[in-house]
């Protein structure tokens, strides 16, 4: 493992691992060769995609790294169906769609576009639009997996194992490629950003919007929340971020924002939803005159980049802190709860440590990120994460929703998961990877 590969020892959680060697296979046969070699030499394998994960899942333990970035081909079956190799990232996939399948889109939209298809499937990743479009597994018809016995299986939705590969975090086998199904692009996409002074109004607004049932072709596909601290943090870094520096600052007197995206086949159908959103916004003290409404592709992209900057800026701060206090790494919540949004937001309003809160508000799935400034605050943040996770567990929430467990959330996952859930994972691991070759330190 030469020095020049040191960037592969870490993911975006900033956890740093160790490895003896790394490979970048270009074909199924080369992957098989690597796995065979590692098996014969009792070497464990850490599988990597884009290393954009934030729970240390692709951070190596030791031994070998199998990186998928050279498995980057896309094969078109027809306008709506593609076979995508695991190392293709979302940026490249979207560029390909722009060129080759202009009228179609892939509704799976984690905001980090360097994430690979293999990484998205293995991490159980989702994006803002999953509020309407649902889980990635709905748009993936088959996954081809290489197991540690060197068998290569194409799993379709009928196979019991198909759903288990989602969120398997590299533990069950190497995802070689996926057959994905595209959707027809909506004719009209609009985005509206509402501003709020306090969290109570944000909650009132979100709870009301969640109840909306539309009878036309128009639908609300996502609701993304950013709190004041998140917006302030982005403002601090904005001038150096080319993709968002042109976006205006939020209107004076307002602290928080909610971005809503609407998709529709018929433009007039949007009117009913917009009228409804305006009424609910006014009821919750948002000034609709200053709401931002956009429908041009470039403006929609800008808003998405702004939302993405929330997570990016957290990572920049953590990286900076890590150069001063090496033990520090990313600490964030990935909890979702059907109910109790307002109570959750109150509990997430931590007073004595710098935090930022953003996320998918209509799914009650908010990411609270801690930005500790010293070791004491770092330890305190870990304790708070534990307490908030227990609270969520007792309320019937999910501790892990889209980022995975990896190595960093193992302890809390094991404390909060049902025993049967852990037993199930152990059994599948034992059945599929008896010698514990693949990603041996993830999840369990
Ligand atoms: C700024 C930022 C924003 C983000 N936004 C989102 C978001 O909106 N939604 C979201 O869900 N996540 C988000 N993430 C987290 C991350 O981007 C996702 O988890 C992503 O899917 C990881 O993909 P990757 O290719 O980088 O995987 P990696 O980080 O390389 O690996 C992640 C896990 O997948 C396994 N894996 C990777 N490839 C394979 C394969 N071919 N076969 C088997 N296992 C494999 C690895 O072993 C590891 O356990 C964000 C991260 C950042 C840094």
Helix content: 25-40%
Low-confidence segments, given as residue ranges, are none
Question: Mind summarizing the main beta sheet?
Answer: 8 strands, antiparallel
Summed up, the helix count is 13
What does this structure look like?
The chain has 444 residues and is of the alpha+beta class. It folds into three domains: 65 residues, Uridine Diphospho-n-acetylenolpyruvylglucosamine Reductase, domain 2, CATH 3.30.43.10; 111 residues, Uridine Diphospho-n-acetylenolpyruvylglucosamine Reductase, domain 3 (2-Layer Sandwich); 207 residues, Alpha-Beta Plaits (2-Layer Sandwich), CATH 3.30.70. 35% of the residues lie in helices and 20% in strands. The protein contains 13 helices and 18 strands. Strands 11, 12, 13, 14, 15, 16, 17 and 18 form an eight-stranded antiparallel β-sheet that branches. It has a five-stranded antiparallel β-sheet with strand order 4-5-9-7-8. Strand 7 and strand 8 form a beta hairpin. Helix 6 runs antiparallel to helix 10 and helix 7 packs across helix 9. The chain is globular and about 65 Å long. The protein starts with 20 loop residues before the first strand and ends in a 12-residue tail after the last helix. The model has no long low-confidence stretch (mean pLDDT 94). Flavin-adenine dinucleotide (FAD) binds next to strand 2, helix 3, strand 9 and helix 9. Flavin-adenine dinucleotide binds next to strand 2, helix 3, strand 9 and helix 9.
Give the helix/strand layout:
Layout lengths: L20 E3 L4 H13 L4 E4 L15 E4 L6 E5 L2 E5 L4 H11 L3 E2 L11 H7 L6 H4 L6 E7 L5 E5 L3 H6 L8 E8 L1 E2 L3 E9 L2 H12 L8 E8 L1 H11 L17 E9 L4 H15 L8 E3 L2 H28 L6 E2 L2 E2 L4 H8 L6 E6 L4 E6 L4 H20 L15 H7 L2 H14 L12
Parallel strand pairs: 1-3, 2-3
Antiparallel strand pairs: 4-5, 5-9, 6-10, 7-8, 7-9, 11-13, 11-14, 12-13, 12-17, 15-18, 16-18, 17-18
